[in-house]
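Trying the structure run again after the queue cleared.
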Amino acid sequence: MEEINLQTEDNLNIVINFYEAESDKAIILLHMLGRSKEDWNNFANSLVKKGYNALALDFRGHGKSDGDVNKFTEENFNKMILDIKEAKNFLASNGKKKIAIIGASIGANAALNYAVTDKDIKNIVLLSPGLNYKGVKTDETIKEYKDSALIVASEDDPYSFGSSKTLNSLNKDSELKTYKKGGHGTRMFVVTDLENVLLEWLEKNL
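Done. Tokens:
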């Protein structure tokens, strides 16, 4: 794993962890609110073993990246898609042609909202998305997304579970995976078979 600094188009320093594999397939991993790129360490290493490059970033205001999330407005949160854009550009410039995005919680919302702006992104996974996290809304963008999407949520996470069912109903190409008990976002990795589900889905779709 290599830690790398990237510069966004609005001049913020964004820090990524890049896990390299010998292939042109790559996965961008987006953390939850108040968390960091390190949440993805175990899964990123599993991706590399399966031949995928992995890139986990610290969103602006989080981890080692510029900004203070405690001072963010809705506009700041919506600009997180610029962090994803820079991560994608980094992968593309390094010869990674097949790129998927997996986001958790607000990272899921940002993943969707970025994907509708970039025709190169054909696969997204939304872990515990919401219809509206901190002003980052998904109910309209889900209708615009035309490629493969997997939405995952747990019944013991009521807001996201309800949001996920609504989002799935608004997109004819998405599929919904639910758990009875799994918690929120990346916490589902701990108590469910989520890792295997994601690896199998990526093998079929990417």
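The longest helix spans residues 80-93. Worth checking whether this holds up in the mutant runs.
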